Amino acid sequence: MRLPVKLTSALFACGVLLASLTAAVPAEAASISCTDTDLPVTGPGLPPLVPGAPATVHGRLCLPAGEAPDTVQLLVHGGTYNSAYWDLPYDPQRYSYQRDMAAHGYATFAADQLGAGRSSHPLSLPLSVWAAAESMHEVVGHLRAGRVGGTPFAKVVIVGHSVGSGVVAVEASTYHDVDGVVLTGITHLPALPVLALGAALGLQPALLDGQLGQLGSDPLYFTTKPGARAGLFYAGGDADPAVVAADEATKDQVSVPGMGTVALFGIVLPATKGITAPVLQVVGEKDVLFCGLLALRDCAHPDVLRAQEAPYYADPSKLSMYVLPGAGHSVALHENAADYRTATRSWLQNDLGIAPQGYHSIG
């Protein structure tokens, strides 16, 4: 008997996750530690009439062995993702940003944005880019105050992906409370026809999704349709089908008002004009959402792309650019993602003077 395609895909995704969770833990993994925590933040309101209600941001702190570093990277995932983007439950030695950074001497805290993962799920309508940025600002304060893992981090570098990069740009330009900014999966001129087509054909209300419908979300929370992520987020020649399956199995929802305000005020207008800290911008060479002719962006040549993006920053001398060859939108989940992580560590050391602590090689 031939199983339906959707059922076959679901069984394959479950098999991928089960295999990854039951596989023997590499000896090198014992050299790092990861713990989950919940932090109080202000939820979205409708100012000045309705103040924000108390909310919770869930996150995972990963540390290298030995004494905790004095710097932490705050990781902010993209739309329809949660913090699993940074610690995918499949082949972590190759694809986990958090575990690889910890093994190389860097601390990270991956947060679930409001509305996603194990963080609070407020109404979607007021969950704008400014509400999301305020919650991340409060997380920065918790990290500096030692309320995460008992370590008061002297430096915080905020790292975003896609929609999360728009949130990061607004956070950094509004509060000026971070020591460095990494923006991945964005340029300032997205390929609007591709984005419009992708939204029309690839997104649906989360309440209608077979995987996320049980969340009971309001109608303005959206997610990707089954099978859409491969075409939107990956470049075929640089993607492992098992990773795409794990991505599908851990997908999440995003607020439509949040996406809209991020696109307009976080990326296009742009918020990056107000960032005063050094910035590393990272894109995949074959990102169909932000690169190519329809985006008026040459992502094949980092120097050309940097020249195109530099006018959107207050101080272009603080902008560094890295292009991951052959990769699509979700740079952390491509087969050569290790090159992007290595480039990020080089930038941390060379531009910010942040050296690794407790280094333990995993490869």
In short:
The protein is an alpha/beta fold. The protein has helices at 5-22, 92-95, 97-103, 129-144, 163-175, 192-202, 229-233, 241-249, 256-268, 302-309, 337-352, and strands spanning 32-42, 54-64, 71-76, 107-111, 155-161, 180-184, 203-205, 221-224, 254-255, 279-284, 319-324. 33% of the residues lie in helices and 18% in strands.
Structure description:
Residues 1-29 form the signal peptide. By secondary structure, the protein is of the alpha/beta class. The chain has a single domain (33-197, 255-352), classed as 3-Layer(aba) Sandwich (Rossmann fold). Helix content is 33%, strand content 18%. It is built from 11 helices and 11 strands. The strands form 2 sheets. It has an 8-stranded mixed sheet, sandwiched between helices. The chain has a 3-stranded antiparallel sheet with strand order 7-8-9. The longest helix is centred in the N-terminal third of the chain and has 18 residues, at 5-22. The radius of gyration is 19 Å and the shape is globular. The model is unreliable at 1-30 (pLDDT under 50).
The first-level CATH class is given as Alpha Beta
- H/E series: HEEEHHEHEHEHEEHHEHEHEH
Global Rg: 19 Å
The residue ranges in which pLDDT falls below 50 over 5 or more consecutive positions are: 1-30
Going across the biggest sheet, name each strand in turn. 1-2-4-3-5-6-10-11
Separate helix tally:
11
* Backbone shape: globular
User: How large is the share of residues in beta strands?
Assistant: 15-25%
CATH superfamily: Alpha/Beta hydrolase fold, catalytic domain
Distance between the termini: 43 Å
At the fold tier of CATH, the topology name is: Rossmann fold
Q: What structural class is derived from the secondary structure elements? A: alpha/beta
Mean residue pLDDT: 90
CATH architecture: 3-Layer(aba) Sandwich
Approximate helicity band? 25-40%
What's the domain count?
Answer: 1
* Largest sheet properties: 8 strands, mixed
Quick one: how many beta strands? 11
Keywords: Hydrolase, Signal
InterPro entries: AB_hydrolase_1, AB_hydrolase_fold, AB_hydrolase_sf
Signal peptide: 1-29
Pfam families: Abhydrolase_1 (PF00561)
